[in-house]
Specification:
It contains five helices and five strands; from the N terminus they run E-H-H-E-H-E-H-E-E-H. Strands 2-1-3-4-5 form a five-stranded parallel β-sheet, sandwiched between helices. Bound molecules: 1,3,4-trihydroxy-5-OXO-cyclohexanecarboxylic acid (DQA). The site of 1,3,4-trihydroxy-5-OXO-cyclohexanecarboxylic acid has 10 residues, from loops.
């Protein structure tokens, strides 16, 4: 099983940006955490991050050609604006889970809309970096329910 984890804009600034909301761990710590979790489960994982909407569309399209089994995506602020990222997910038809480190449901009104939610089969929010591991569990359960 291979999973692609996509992080959108400003998630490379973890540990620096608003630590009261996003915590003190940096992006490298997140990637390490995901890599060791997946290694224990014999899951192939690739973690990518971009600040650019078109790059994220490209990553999702490439996942189709790379025969990726599942996508975990935190689109950052593009969650609330990007029809293009939603359409890319719909185009490739790969099972996907949306993750937010913070509890967006208790934040500003402009964060209450998520375009990718129209595609993702689950949304995890407010679980900090552990939320990515939870998302991987959900994808594993969906792809391999016998496990
Ligand atoms: C976020 C929440 C978004 O509203 C915000 O723009 C982010 C991060 C989260 O992980 O909590 O960049 O997706």
């Amino acid at each position: 099983m291979n999973i692609l984890v996509i992080n959108g804009p400003n998630l490379n600034m973890l540990g620096i940006r608003e630590p009261g909301i996003y915590g003190n761990d940096n992006y490298e710590a997140l990637v390490d955490k995901i890599a060791s979790y997946c290694e224990e489960r014999a899951i192939d994982v690739t973690c990518l991050q971009s600040n650019h909407e078109g790059d994220i569309v490209d990553m999702i399209q490439q996942a189709y050609f790379d025969k990726v089994d599942g996508i975990v995506i935190n689109p950052g602020a593009y969650t609330h604006t990007s029809v293009a990222i939603l359409d890319a997910l719909k185009s490739v038809d790969i099972p996907a889970v949306e993750v937010h480190i913070s509890d967006v449901s208790s934040r500003e009104p402009f964060r209450q809309v998520s375009y990718v939610s129209y595609y993702c089969f689950a949304t995890i929010m407010g679980e900090g970096l552990e939320g990515y591991l939870h998302a991987i569990d959900l994808i594993e359960d969906k792809l391999d329910p016998e496990k």
